[in-house]
Amino acid sequence: MRISLLETKQLEDRIFHRETDGEALVTDVKLYLNEDLRQKLTAQKQVYGYVKAYGRKKLKAEIASVHHRIFHEEQHRGFRNKIRRIFRRREK
């Protein structure tokens, strides 16, 4: 189990550019010699990519929800009008 955790940390350090020059060299050699490790690195990069994409999708949905509430719900009319006045002044 400990080797797996160390390996995961090494791969994360590679992905997030947290290696020293010496550590990067050692990791390069390990990746060159170990096909399984290269596959794990590729898989881990993909997982982080999926997590990042999911987070962006969720944030985009949250922003759209806030935008809808502010610009369509009656209770926010005062704020909506202030925003419109600000942008009208800039257009002139």
Structure notes:
The protein has 92 residues and is mostly helical. It has one domain. Helix 2 crosses helix 3. It is elongated.
Concise structural overview:
With 92 residues, the chain is mostly helical.
* Largest sheet properties: none
Mean pLDDT: 92
The computed structural class is: mainly alpha
State the order of secondary-structure elements, H for helix, E for strand: HHHH
Query: What is the number of independent domains?
Result: 1
Q: Helical amount among residues, as a percent range?
A: over 70%
Distance from N terminus to C terminus (CA atoms, Å) equals 66 Å
Shape: elongated
Strand content: under 5%
Task: Return residue spans where pLDDT drops below 50 for at least 5 consecutive residues.
Answer: none
Number of helices: 4
Q: Please provide the count of β strands.
A: 0
What are its keywords?
single chain; 92 residues; mainly alpha
